[in-house]
Design a protein that fits this description.
Elements (H helix, E strand, L loop, with lengths): L4 H7 L1 H28 L3 H4 L2 E7 L4 H11 L2 H4 L3 E7 L2 H10 L4 E4 L1 H9 L4 E8 L5 E4 L14 E4 L4 H12 L4 H4 L1 E4 L2 H9 L5 E4 L3 H6 L6 E5 H9 L6 E6 H6 L2 H19 L1 H12 L5 H7 L15 H13 L16
Parallel strand pairs: 1-2, 6-7, 6-8
Antiparallel strand pairs: 3-10, 4-10, 5-8, 5-9
Helix pairs in contact: 1-2, 4-15, 8-12, 14-15, 15-16
């Protein structure tokens, strides 16, 4: 490229060199201005903070929440960019937030209590799901309640909040699951298979596995429901899952907590007002049969309720901590930082 061409340069070299210099100065000024504008006003996607959210790789509550948030654009609507990170087991799921592989997840209050006591820097920021989907399904008619489990075999995931909640209730009814019952470690889908194969007397299940399991045999009976049991014991409904975030993520950007709570409230509202669409999203992204998610919500086996953890439900969460200590399920109470304060 030349500035004015060789002929002009030959006719009046000084004027041509002056014109060329002005052209380059204008180009440099333009580029500098463009860079300044891009730095001052980055694209919208670059402005949204990215949050890595753990989900289970099989159909489960965390999977549904993550899928609907992403597919319905609820993260973008609240200024966030949520990346879902799948895990095949509950132990790997919880380990991921301890190592910093993820920033947030939906987890049990008493698992949070236990991990906080072990020094994992996590805190509760919101409620998510009541324990209404937690059930025990028995294959024999003589097993009619939790106290009938004595001497029987139970398939359950012992690393889950559901097992801790069941253990607290069982101790309240005078039964020690680890001493009085033969517990077979099994994630929820495997627990269903163990029950179907006749290898255990009872399986601890959650939705949607519980609904699918009840279709396996007309002889099956539900002998325990988490929400009813917790209400019987305490007078309130308790929580199966609440939302945790890592302390360092909250300290880095405290405003994200408010955005996360609003995003989760948006999820709850989307499920309430667009249940057919939510069911289609869940069926398409998780492989769950169409209609199963909708049925679980309509019959209130899946009950989403989102509140800030520091608000009206704080005392209910703290009560779960105290009862776990009383039952000997968790060693002691966590520090006050376990629940976020704005």
């Amino acid at each position: 490229m030349t500035c004015g061409g060789e002929e002009d340069e030959m006719r009046g070299g000084g004027r041509a060199r002056g014109s060329c210099g002005a052209w380059w100065r204008a180009l440099v000024v333009g580029l500098v201005t463009l860079v300044a504008v891009l730095l001052a006003y980055p694209p919208a996607a670059a402005q949204r903070p990215r949050l890595r959210m753990a989900v289970l790789s099989f159909p489960a509550i965390s999977t549904f929440v993550g899928a609907v948030i992403r597919e319905a654009g609820l993260d973008r609507a609240h200024g966030l960019d949520v990346e879902t990170v799948p895990f095949a087991t509950i132990s790997a799921y919880y380990a991921a937030i301890a190592t910093g592989e993820v920033d947030m997840l939906g987890g049990g209050p008493n698992v949070l209590q236990r991990m906080r006591l072990e020094g994992v820097p996590v805190r509760a920021v919101a409620t998510l799901v009541r324990p209404s989907d937690l059930v025990l399904i028995a294959r024999h008619p003589e097993v009619r309640s939790v106290t009938d489990l004595k001497g029987k075999t139970l398939a359950a995931d012992m690393g889950s909040q559901q097992f801790l909640l069941l253990s607290i209730y069982a101790r309240w009814r005078g039964l020690d699951l680890r001493r009085d019952v033969t517990v077979v470690q099994a994630p929820f889908p495997l627990a269903r298979a163990q029950l179907a194969a006749g290898r255990v007397d009872v399986a601890m299940l959650i939705e949607p596995v519980a609904t699918l399991a009840m279709r396996d045999s007309t002889a099956y009976r539900i002998i325990f429901n988490g929400r009813r049991a917790w209400r019987e014991m305490t007078g309130n409904d308790g929580w199966e899952l609440i939302v945790w975030m890592r302390d360092d993520v909250v300290r880095r950007a405290p405003g994200q907590v408010d955005a996360v709570v609003k995003m989760l409230a948006g999820f709850q509202e989307f499920v309430r007002t667009n249940l057919d669409e939510a069911d289609r999203i869940v069926a398409r992204t998780t492989g769950l049969p169409a209609g199963a998610f909708k049925e679980a919500v309509l019959y209130r086996r899946l009950q989403f309720e989102v509140y800030p953890a520091w608000g009206r439900e704080r005392s209910a969460i703290e009560q779960m901590f105290r009862l776990a200590v009383d039952a000997g399920v968790v060693e002691r109470l966590p520090d006050a930082g376990v629940i976020h304060r704005p």
